[in-house]
Amino acid sequence: MISKYTVSGMTCGNCVNHVTEEVSEVDGVINVSVTLDNGAMLVESADRIPFDAIIEAVHEAGSYSVVEA
Prior knowledge:
Blueprint: E1 2-8, H1 13-24, E2 29-34, E3 40-45, H2 51-61, E4 65-68
Antiparallel strand pairs: 1-3, 1-4, 2-3
């Protein structure tokens, strides 16, 4: 299953790396792809990941916000 999100507040490659790293650590996440230009984030998982877990991981990465796309 692939879930789509939009992350705002990222300004550089380090931001992308931090978000990718934190979201990758969420239980059940198989793969994460984040694009700096438009803030697109694709999260691959076997089952649906609770949105609250995604929000928490993105906030752990820094001062970013996330919405479901």
